[in-house]
Amino acid sequence: MKTFALLLEARSPLAIRADHAPSGFGCLDYLPGTSLAGGLASLFRLLYPNERDEFKRLFLSGRVQFPDLLLTPLITSGDEQNEMQQEIPLSPVYPLPRTAQSCKRHPGFQGDNGRKQGESGHGVRDALFAWAIFALQPDDEPQAIKALKSQRSCEVCKAPMQSITGCYARHGTAFQLADYRGRRRLQTHTGIDRLRGTVQEEILYNREVLDEGTCFWGLLKASDEEAPLLQRFIEEAGHSGLVRVGTGRTRGLGAVELTLTPLQEASASWEHFRERLLTFDRKLKDYLATYKAPEPRKSQGQRGEPFYFALTLCSPTILCDEFLRYRGRIDEAALAELLGPPFTREDLRALHMAATLHRVTGWNDLWGLPRPVEYAIERGSVFLFAYWMRGDADRDELIKALFRLEEEGIGRRRNEGFGSVRISDPFHFEVL
Length: 432
Ligand SMILES: [Zn+2]
Hints:
The chain is α+β, with helices and mostly antiparallel strands. The chain folds into two domains: 2-72 and 181-262, Alpha-Beta Plaits (2-Layer Sandwich), CATH 3.30.70; 266-430, Alpha-Beta Plaits (2-Layer Sandwich). The protein is built from nine helices and 24 strands. Strands 1, 2, 3, 4, 15 and 16 form a six-stranded antiparallel β-sheet that branches. It has a four-stranded antiparallel β-sheet with strand order 18-23-17-24, with helices on both faces. Strands 7-11-12 form a three-stranded antiparallel β-sheet, with no helix packed on it. The longest helix is centred in the middle third of the chain and has 25 residues, at 266-290. It starts with a strand and ends with a helix.
């Protein structure tokens, strides 16, 4: 499996619609993997109508995973006068977890240089560790409430904290929030009379678009055989001005440029991954110790020490149980199924979940029909687990299984950007 960072830059206004409901005109703040794959597939058919085999390998085999692309933050250049804003290329963008909270009056990261002077927020904090204490404390113990209370109001202005959504990127040691602000506008159009070709009376509609110059970022994965083919195609087509995504493609919207950058070898990232998981576990144990939280209670047959890890969803995830019912959360049974043997639900305990469901719709250009409706666990959902390890070797076995989940993704429709997961995201302890 090879991984590439994909940067998409809008060359014309971009309209990305969530569905085809006639009443909706809103624009999404991310580009779904299905739209990206659809845009590239139609261009491939246009450029190489006879290379059916290559088409099959890239778009139908499922060996290339087209990710959801997330909005990148803006950074203002030093010159405040002309307020020129430019994008930071290629710094990874992640969704804010559902446990993230920020000041109600001044939301956003502290020292966020993407904002104009005075607009920087009062800071973002993550409540996952506090919720872990809440889950572990016996009911009559006030410590849990103390941990959560400390997260209740803003440290700067004492306003209440509330949850914050969106994406963020890291720039050096500082975090930057990526949101719509200053980057979307309404375009107003008139309907055309089908008979006369003139303006149709009483038909005036709005369409929300993102400005040209807006950038999106995502991780594209391809198997080793497909990677060179994909790289060649994107290098040829990416800057040709022919790639179009989103809606309104025949009205001049959606022209984009694509830049693909290969990332380093996976073997180096395994060490890195292991270190990240161990750090998360250690940080959470330190935090629990400061609040004197007890270890999770064991049920029968559980031995050993708990090892903590969290699953944070970077894209919506479609999971089904054995009766093909959609799962609304990842519990012990679901995780044991994902990890595979020898891990069983008895070894695991879900300590905290912050998750919502989301309806997935869409349009399939190839069929000319709407896609079937499915239900996905929303991006940014967080699941905290404890695992009873029987020694270090056993723990490494678990880390290996989790590494596979992060590498391959989980659930259905992974080649369309669903099911991308990050294990033990450092965000949870970095902005405590
Ligand atoms: Zn504040």
